[in-house]
Amino acid sequence: MTEETLAETPSPVRRRPAPDPTGVGFDPVPAGLVEEGPVTRVEMPGGEGWAWLVTRMDDVRMVTDDPRFSREAAMGRQITRQAPHFVPTRDAVGFLDPPDHTRLRRSVAPAFTARGVERVRESSRRTLDELVDELLRGGPPADLTRAVLSPFPIAVICELMGVPPADRHGMHTWTRLILSSSPGADAGEQAKEEMGAYFAELIDARVESTGEDVASLLGAAVGRREITLAEAVGLAVLLQIGGEAVTDNSGQLFHILLTRPELAERLRREPEIRPQAVDELLRWIPHHDGVGLSRVALEDVEIRGVRIRAGDAVHVSYLAANRDPDVFPDPAAIDFSRSPNPHVTFGFGPHRCPGGRLARLESELLVDALLDRVPGLRLAVPADQVPFRKGTSIRGPEALPVTW
């Protein structure tokens, strides 16, 4: 950042510590930054220097959908970031701009359409029923995370990806190493390389496939020379990791329902409101405490009277945008009747998470199965004794002790 830029931006640089909050409350750090203003400057544990942080819904949507803010321009730069790893590298799909990003996303789009997600609905329901059967056979108390909330999303995303059942445990191990900072950046990078090598072999074996799973779609696209194998692998790794976020999101979702039993009872009485209720819970839960991947301004842009200079790094907070009082009346309340509910839990713009529809399906199936089949479900320990994961970029219970 230049002295000229600093002279025009008197707001102080706020250091954002590595998050490790417990429970499902709104992280006080972004909450404090929101109070300071819609556009602030932050320094995070990883990378170097400072970056702008944008927190209001209109501004978050503008930055994420405006070609003047580039993900690709972040490559090769040590921009301040939440995680010590996830350094921008070539062929990293998350750091490509259109049209290359659009070309890659197009190759797997059929798997994430309404039809593509519907293709795995019944098998997902069967898998979930089997897990709940096993939970009930084992009897209380039980760890809901270990018994249901972790194995279910793994099975669903692996089926959608085309990963054989025998390889699912390895995928889960790699994903946890990649998402966690506790083992260190080297362990995360090694896990990412190993997962990439696995997908390279899987995709390469399917270059003539006509299957509908992601690995087959990517193999076919590589076979048609629409994308390279390296690009296909990068996209597969990103999708696989993202698919397991449902474990942590659903852990928070059930933490809320089990600590606010009046909400769970209402969903039992009024099953017709469950899809809308799940959408509201997805808006409300602090699905992660970081700020995602950075963008770089390609030209000077003014946001709410603040000049963002060409070359400045910019982060957005979807979590803060989901609590914007100009968009969501009484944003801290969980309101199952909230409509419209234009949250950005799954992002916005070209880099919007392609798995949003799948995540909603999984969350709705989990709510149906657990509320209907385990009517006495409740926490087996006080709420403040539920252990939450530490040193990870996605917040969620490490275990959810329950009884019934």
Walk me through the topology.
Blueprint: H1 3-8, E1 13-15, H2 28-36, E2 39-43, E3 51-54, H3 57-65, E4 69-70, H4 100-112, H5 114-118, H6 121-138, E5 142-143, H7 144-149, H8 151-161, H9 168-179, H10 185-204, H11 214-223, H12 229-243, H13 245-259, H14 261-269, H15 274-284, E6 295-297, E7 301-303, E8 306-308, E9 313-316, H16 318-321, H17 356-373, E10 378-379, E11 401-403
Parallel strand pairs: 1-2, 3-9
Antiparallel strand pairs: 2-3, 4-6, 5-11, 6-9, 7-8, 10-11
Helix pairs in contact: 4-11, 6-8, 6-17, 8-12, 9-10, 10-11, 10-12, 11-12, 13-14, 15-17
Can you put this structure into words, describing what you see?
The chain is of the alpha+beta class. It has one domain (3-403): Cytochrome p450, CATH 1.10.630. Helix content is 47%, strand content 8%. A 6-stranded mixed sheet has the order 1-2-3-9-6-4, sandwiched between helices. Strands 5-11-10 form a 3-stranded antiparallel sheet. It has a two-stranded antiparallel sheet with strand order 7-8. A hairpin with a 2-residue loop joins strand 7 (301-303) and strand 8 (306-308). The chain is globular and about 60 Å long. The relative contact order is 0.19.
In DSSP terms (H or I, runs of 4 or more residues), the helix count works out at 17
Largest sheet: 6 strands, mixed
Side by side, the strands of the main sheet go 1-2-3-9-6-4
Mean pLDDT: 91
What is the name of the CATH superfamily?
Cytochrome P450
CATH architecture: Orthogonal Bundle
Fraction in helix: 40-55%
Tell me how many strands there are: 11
How would you name the oligomeric state of the polypeptide chains in this document? single chain
Task: Please mark out the parts with pLDDT under 50 across 5 or more consecutive residues, or reply none.
Answer: 1-7
Radius of gyration: 21 Å
Q: What percentage of the residues does DSSP assign to strands (E)?
A: 5-15%
Could you tell me the CATH topology label: Cytochrome p450
Task: Give helix and strand order, one letter per element, not per position.
Answer: HEHEEHEHHHEHHHHHHHHHEEEEHHEE
Q: How many domains make up the coordinates?
A: 1
Task: Look at the helices and sheets and give the structural class.
Answer: alpha+beta
- CATH class, please? Mainly Alpha
Ends distance:
57 Å
CA-based shape: globular
